[in-house]
Amino acid sequence: MTYILTLYGMIVGNIKKNSNIICCFLISLMTILFSLNTNNSDYNNYLAIFAACVQDVNSTNAGPAYRYLCNFSGKIGLNYNQMLLFIVFVCLILIITTIKKHTKNWNFVLVLYIIFPFFIDVVQVRNFIAMSIIVFSFNYLLSLKRGGNIKFVICVIIATLFHSVAIIYMVFLLAKILSKKWLIFISLLGTIIGLTITSTDIPYRLALMFLPISKVTFFTNTIGLGFGLLFNAIMQIASVVLVAYSYHIIQVRSKKNVKDKYYIDKQRLVNLVLKINIILLPIISLYYYNATFTRIYRNVFILNYIVFALTYIEYQIKTKKRFTYILIVFLYTMAMCAINIGPYIQDTLIAILNNNLLFK
User: Fold this and answer.
1) Which residues contact 10 (CB under 8 A, 6 or more apart)?
2) Are 101 and 266 a contacting pair, CB within 8 Å?
3) For 179-257, where are the alpha helices, taking DSSP H only?
4) Is the residue at 359 inside a domain?
5) Pseudo-torsion of CA 60, 130, 40, 24, nearest 10°?
6) Which domain holds residue 275?
7) How many CB atoms within 10 Å of residue 172?
8) pLDDT tens-digit series, residues 94-108
9) 254 inside domain
10) Is 78 left (phi over 0), alpha (psi -120 to 50) or beta?
11) CA dihedral angle for residue 114, residue 120, residue 123, residue 126, rounded to 10 degrees
12) Number of structural domains in the chain
């Protein structure tokens, strides 16, 4: 049944791109698949963390906010899946309110998200929480109102309390300070330096200054220059190209409506997302060590999907170009799914669809 519902939701969501009823269906579907799942590659680990934190909040090295959430949930009588229900409900609200604020075609974005990386987020709960907060914080980063940057920083700090990797998103503030030319120069330089020093012990020594040796050993468990590094690097560069092309289309449209605040705001949004993608390019060098670093880039996918939705629907391109554009977007998203989920499909997608408390 979960297979049928998921496929149905993806098809109908792509047809009825701004239907509130379908939106509620997709959110309900994701909530059920996420919170009522009873088996995936990390389920038992999270179950153990929950049980440990209920007894002693300092018993694990999970993020402090997550530990206290587990402890509080256990104290009021919730089990792990019931706590997940609360987490998913709050996080999806943060995500959907951000999507709806910037595009009318929210279901299109949700369908792309279900294709990738939703099923990885089901496995990586703490990262999912951090990601949802970072996506929501984009509203403050984009805002021209006083205090927007401070609110963004607060959101990043909160996200970091759930997963330490979120602290890296502080660099997004550079997108409001520097031009695209400077960001491209800095990011390319950072990528080249990063790839150059991968064969040395410099990254290892630097990491030891901030992290315990157990963490450093895990993160520097070198994969090497294999297909994983190559494919993820190519796909990340492809993301930048897709967003850059989308920005070009929207920029052309905006020039025809120079006095229309709607188009000016959307151009500013896409420009900011493009800058964020450029800023994250040096992450490519980290793929040499461990595939887990792909989550840093993966966490901004929803922002990219918002850009794709704006370009595809709200900016009228010719039918043939529109079809080609959306085909490329879907192929790109499915390729990301194949690269990152394909090798682990039994422990992620299949395990999630086959093991659900509601559909035993």
Assistant:
1) 111, 114, 115
2) no
3) 180-196, 202-208, 213-219, 227-255
4) no
5) 140
6) 2-354
7) 21
8) 999 999 999 989 999
9) yes
10) beta
11) -100
12) 1
Tokens 């996918």 belong to: 301
pLDDT by residue (tens digit) across 220-238? 565 544 556 788 889 999 9
Strands (E), 76-135: none
Residue 356 pairs in a beta bridge with 37
Strand partners, 33: none
How large is the angle between the packed helices 20-35 and 2-15, nearest 10 degrees? 150
**Is-contact 81 35, C-beta < 8 A?**
yes
Residue 347: alpha-carbon gap to chain centroid: 20
Report d(CA 12, CA 6) in Å as an integer: 10
The answer to which of 64-73, 96-105, 197-206 has the lowest mean pLDDT is: 197-206
Question: How many CA atoms within 13 Å lie on the side-chain side of 323?
Answer: 2
Report yes or no on 122 lying in a domain: yes
Q: Which of 197, 186, 36 is nearest to 207 (CA)?
A: 197
Q: Compute the distance between CA of residue 50 and CA of residue 231 in angstroms, rounded to an integer.
A: 35
Task: Give residue 319's pLDDT band: very low, low, confident or very high (50, 70, 90).
Answer: confident
The residue written with tokens 């009825």 in the block is: 16
Residue pointed to by tokens 């394909």? 342
Q: CA triplet 139, 101, 301: central angle to 5 degrees?
A: 65
CB 105 within 8 A of CB 309: yes
Measure the CA–CA gap between 288 and 295, rounded to whole angstroms: 14
Task: Say how far apart CA 261 and CA 210 lie, in whole Å.
Answer: 45
Q: Please state the rounded mean pLDDT for residues 262-287.
A: 92
Written as six digits, the tokens of 312 are 């595809």
pLDDT 10s digits, 107-150: 999 999 999 999 999 999 999 999 999 999 999 999 998 899 99
Q: Give the Cα-Cα-Cα angle 31, 128, 270 (nearest 5 degrees).
A: 100
Residue 117: cis peptide before it, omega within 30 degrees of 0: yes
340 belongs to a structural domain: yes
State pTM to two decimals.
Answer: 0.94
C-beta of residue 295 within 8 angstroms of C-beta of residue 130: no
CA torsion sign for 91, 337, 40, 284 is negative
166 contacts: CB under 8 Å, gap ≥ 6:
130, 133, 134, 156, 159, 160
Q: What are the backbone angles phi and psi of residue 37, rounded to the nearest 5°?
A: -70, 140
